[in-house]
Amino acid sequence: MTTRKNQVRKRDMSFANRTMTKIWQEIPSEQNPYLAEACRCHGYDILELAQKRSFSEVLFLLFQGELPTPEQARMLEFLFVSMINPGPRHPATRAAMNAGVGKTTPAHILPIGLNALGSEYLGGQEVEAAIRFFRKNLRDSPNALVAECLKGERPHKGDWHIVPGFGSRFGEIDPMPLKIIALLRTKGSGQAISWGCSFAEALKPYGMGWLSTGVVAAVLSDLGFLPQTGAGLFQLICAPGILAHGLELTNKPISAMPFLDEEHYVIEPESRKK
Amino acid sequence: MLSNLNLAKSDTFFWDEKRGVIRTRKGGWIPGEAVYCHGFDMMENLVGQASYFQVLVLNATGRLPERRLADWLEAYFVCNSYPDARIWCNQVGSLFGTIRATPVSAISAGILASDSKMYGPGTIQAGVKFFVDAMAKKRGGISVEEIVLSCQRGPRAKPVILGYARPVANGDERIEAMERVTKKLGFEHGEHLSLAFDIEEIMLEKTKEQMNALAYVLPFLCDQGFSVQEIYCLLAALVYAGVIACYAEAADQPPESFFPLHCEDIDYQGKPPRPVPA
Q1: CATH number for the domain harbouring residue B166
Q2: C-alpha–C-alpha distance, residues A149 and B218, integer Å
Q3: Which residue of B39, B102, B275 is in closest CB contact with A270?
Q4: 8 Å CB contact of B273 and A40
Q5: Is residue B270 part of a domain?
């Protein structure tokens, strides 16, 4: 083994003196430069926005730099309400509920649930991947693409997310995303939603269709959000439900959730003793 | 426990089998009997006998490693415990401290911040894949130079390989330190690690970039037989001690006194003031 000599050299890099943003401007108080006298979001005074615009409109502004059209605002609002809660069986919500009943500091409940919801499977990373999938394939034939994707190897057990945002849930097509997408289409449908519906239709004979992550990705894609916003926005959309379920259990006894008895917590014999 | 009522017509047998029950090969606590851990009685066989890092490896992989491998791993954790509040994940710790978030949330957030494509555990999956693929190519008769050149992003571009560049500095003081530990604990360079050094020679010639700790540690752990997922699990909390150092210092000072900013310290480059349209 050779003895290695330390040859660490600092790079000749220049770092910014000040952090840059195009989103938010804080006008300093004349008396105290640490305090802001006024705040502007992409040029609009935040207090004026608070009086004239909805939460989802200002959210759109934050990420895209301009206020949405009325149709875009309706689509985003519908998405926020219809996806407000992944439900008490989603692993991310369950993580928050476990933390809640386990009496964690209430401030930790939401970060715990949202960390879980950043996942590759039914989580934020799948939304991001699905937005990229739409951007890459919107010009291709959905039927041909389904035929191509079906050549992939189906998992031996469990569900198959054949592409990000589409697949089966507990062995078949999840009905709720399907209903949400049907209602979204009545509010005006962009390219990703329309194409996704054709893609889901072609998957139907194989027991697969829209997943909740695909629906969110299609709407965000049609609204012009970049793929990298997908994970965080999905977390934001689902945050209220996750927090509500977690908090619901914080003041309940630990017996309010299952703690399996030994009959139902099965330690395989080889793991008990060598 | 749960009702057996099943109204679904679909074939849900795969999930039904798992409903209401947890089956584990890891272990668990049988109150009044024992805490089982991969075939060991934790209180009898592990506590006071195995090191924390041995148990960490056991829990992540199901295999109890020899003590020297756990000690090697612990040394690498020490290598990543820089108490420098400029480092991205550590500054997260400082910021949590200055607003009195809890130390647990600071550590969790700092570890999350290190799950990065630039440094920390977030680089592990791509890094291990590179070394495993490179090893397969070498075994298939491809030269080290060809392996390096296959990492060019264009015909005239310099090859870019994860583990052979480092933010802020070129070179890595952790390698020399870990080499001492490797030698002291009696480990030899395995085929992955030897390949990593061979790649460095070519990279130095073509890009002047030295290997960083990632290109030392990942091949070493591959040589020890760990899979990519096992390595990701083992190194997940790598930056924890550095984060807690920065958290502790900031939490010990008056609130919001860590690296405070004037409004003008933020360089606004966005749109000028405008009225909200009706």
Answers
A1: 1.10.230
A2: 33
A3: B39
A4: yes
A5: no
